[in-house]
């Protein structure tokens, strides 16, 4: 494993802090996109947008050491991907699952960032 | 096994936060020369002038995704034999097998560890088969 100088460690930590400051906004965007889908009508563009947001959040949160946020976003991504395969509308059961995962995502975000969500 | 040290990577990643930490990992931690690309299309534009040893290619990208980019690279005479390492969260065994059967050199799971990404890429490069073994240059 490469060892890092204190300067590089600080630089990596600075990158992580910068990302942490953006997490609440990223999560809010995903939440908003999902809430718009809960109306029930097929919305391919909205679903694609929510899916991209969840996927991006899952990947970046994992990379920056926020496993709970990543896991919740990944679960949300899986639900949205299933909905995408089924015609771009959230059926009632799926909508309930999405809400559960959104709550989990919000709690994980609060724990990770220390900011109320 | 190749006997030349890894020097230059074309790193294709659309998400700015991941790309930033990936560049940090590869360049500042790993000491590698890296050309970033923000999309599959930009990767196809840069790969010729860049002439990388290996391409690190994100799979899930909007527009031209990693698979499409890979196929386009394979279709070009000047890039068909450049080794490609996919980076993806989809790393179930059957998914990895699929990427490898397409001709990828390896698959790196996301999320990656910024402290060890460069080591992982180097290990893959150092362990790659010689061209005469598989017909794949690298």
How is this structure best described in words?
The complex is a heterodimer of chains A (117) and B (138). Chain A is an all-alpha fold and 117 residues long. Helix content of chain A is 79%, strand content 0%. Chain A contains four helices and no strands. Chain A has helices at residues 6-37, 44-63, 67-85, 92-113. Chain B is globular. Chain B has helices spanning 16-29, 40-50, 66-75, 93-102, 117-126, 131-134; strands at 8-12, 33-37, 54-58, 84-88, 106-109. Chain B has six helices and five strands, in the order E-H-E-H-E-H-E-H-E-H-H. Chain B has one domain: Response regulator (Rossmann fold), CATH 3.40.50.2300. Chain B is of the alpha/beta class. Classes of the chains: A mainly alpha (117), B alpha/beta (138). The interface between A and B is medium-sized, with 21 and 20 residues.
Summarize the structure.
The complex is a heterodimer of chains A (117) and B (138). In chain A, 79% of the residues lie in helices and 0% in strands. Chain A has helices at residues 6-37, 44-63, 67-85, 92-113.
Question: Could you list some keywords that capture this structure?
Answer:
heterodimer, A: 117 residues, mainly alpha, Four Helix Bundle (Hemerythrin (Met), subunit A), 4 helices, 0% strand, B: 138 residues, alpha/beta, Rossmann fold, five-stranded parallel sheet, 5 strands, globular, disordered C terminus
Placed side by side, the strands forming the largest sheet of chain B appear as 2-1-3-4-5
- What do the pLDDT scores of chain A average to? 86
Major sheet size, sense and barrel closure of chain B:
5 strands, parallel
DSSP strand count of chain B? 5
Query: Major beta sheet of chain A, specifics?
Result: none
End-to-end distance of chain A: 37 Å
Task: Classify the secondary structure makeup of chain A into a structural class.
Answer: mainly alpha
**Which residues of chain A sit in consecutive blocks of at least 5 with pLDDT less than 50?**
none
**Considering the protein shown, what is the CATH homologous superfamily of chain A?**
HPT domain
CATH class of chain A: Mainly Alpha
Provide the gyration radius of chain B in Å: 14 Å
User: What fraction strand of chain B?
Assistant: 15-25%
Number of domains as seen in the coordinates of chain B: 1
- Written as H for each helix and E for each strand, in order along the chain, the element string of chain B is EHEHEHEHEHH
């Amino acid at each position: 494993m490469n060892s890092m100088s204190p300067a590089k460690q600080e630089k990596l930590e600075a990158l992580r802090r910068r990302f942490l400051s953006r997490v609440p906004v990223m999560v809010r965007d995903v939440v908003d996109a999902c809430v718009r889908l809960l109306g029930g009508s097929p919305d391919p563009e909205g679903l694609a947008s929510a899916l991209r947001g969840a996927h991006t959040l899952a990947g970046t949160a994992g990379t920056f050491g926020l496993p709970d946020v990543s896991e919740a976003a990944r679960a949300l991504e899986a639900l949205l991907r299933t909905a995408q395969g089924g015609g771009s509308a959230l059926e009632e059961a799926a909508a309930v699952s999405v809400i559960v995962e959104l709550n989990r995502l919000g709690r994980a975000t609060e724990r990770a960032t220390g900011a109320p969500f | 096994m190749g006997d030349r040290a890894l020097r230059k990577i074309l790193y294709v990643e659309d998400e700015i936060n991941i790309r930033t930490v990936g560049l940090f990992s590869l360049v500042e931690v790993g000491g590698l020369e890296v050309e970033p690309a923000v999309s599959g299309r930009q990767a196809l534009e840069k790969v010729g002038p860049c002439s990388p040893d290996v391409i690190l290619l994100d799979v899930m990208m909007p527009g031209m995704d990693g698979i499409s980019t890979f196929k386009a690279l394979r279709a070009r005479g000047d890039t068909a034999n450049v080794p490609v390492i996919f980076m993806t969260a989809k790393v179930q065994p059957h998914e990895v097998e699929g990427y490898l059967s397409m001709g990828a050199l390896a698959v790196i799971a996301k999320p990656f560890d910024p402290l060890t990404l460069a080591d992982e890429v180097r290990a893959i490069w150092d362990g790659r088969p010689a061209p005469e073994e598989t017909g794949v240059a690298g």
